[in-house]
Design a protein that fits this description.
The protein has 5 helices and no strands. With about 80 residues, the chain is mainly alpha-helical. The chain has one domain.
């Protein structure tokens, strides 16, 4: 199983997505955390024990599908590594 926080951090670090864009996808898929809490969980400043990872998983999958549909093939190396 992929570490979703790591995947999100790598995508953010590679500037493949903005934090607010990722949070909006997370929120639209049933995420409960506000943007500040979301950021803190992604960067492990808050414990993930109560964090629902399913909306984040769906958000990351939606991003990948969007990129595939748009034909984005020049992903940054960090993005390619974390997506496997």
């Amino acid at each position: 199983m992929r570490d979703l926080r790591h995947v999100a951090r790598e995508l953010l670090r590679a500037k493949a997505v903005a934090l607010i864009g990722l949070w909006i996808l997370y929120w639209n898929n049933g995420g409960r955390y506000d943007p500040f809490e979301f950021d803190a969980v992604i960067y492990e400043a808050l414990p993930a024990s109560c964090f629902d990872f399913e909306p984040l998983d769906v958000a990351l999958d939606e991003l990948i599908m969007k990129w595939l549909m748009e034909g984005i093939t020049a992903w940054p190396d960090a993005t390619r590594r974390c997506l496997g």
